[in-house]
Amino acid sequence: MRSSIAIEVRATPDRVFRLARDVSRWPDLLPHYRQVSVERQSHGHVLARMVAVRWFGPLPVPVTWRAEQWSDVDHPDGPRLHFRHVRGVTRGMQVTWRISQTATGARIVIEHDFVRQLPLVGDRFLPRIVDRWFTRPIASRTLRTFRDLAEAPAVDTPMVDIPVDGSAVVAATAADGPPLP
What we know:
Blueprint: E1 2-9, H1 13-20, H2 26-29, E2 33-40, E3 46-56, E4 59-72, E5 80-87, E6 94-102, E7 105-113, H3 125-151
Antiparallel strand pairs: 1-7, 2-3, 3-4, 4-5, 5-6, 6-7
Helix pairs in contact: 1-3
């Protein structure tokens, strides 16, 4: 199953890419990410253990997975972030972030490609459940938060153009659940 979500951002593709590429900073920037542990690989990739929260009404449900992550800053159509899920229910999922230039800034498209067979139910049941109830809600909140951070005024520190304290993070919407402590 392949699915994608997208968002328009009033910031340069480079700014968006610099903001998103370091997954070890995601818990500091994204209120729904609780933890990301990163192990640097010899070939330039990182192995990340990620923990995010998916809200079901007032109930926070932790979601965890491991993914190999790498980036392609020199792609001719704009920077790319790549994830290959290696553990968890989403093992085998391929994720690509495509960040491209638009007339007003950047467009971020996240593509999820996931096929996983379950005995007796085949390869359609689990990917659809995962996409609808977990992948899409978490990725949508991630995109909205990165958009808000990228569009926030820059801090006057060289090479640091995003608030580290998360001050640009907007309040969660009702669909996201209550704000995290």
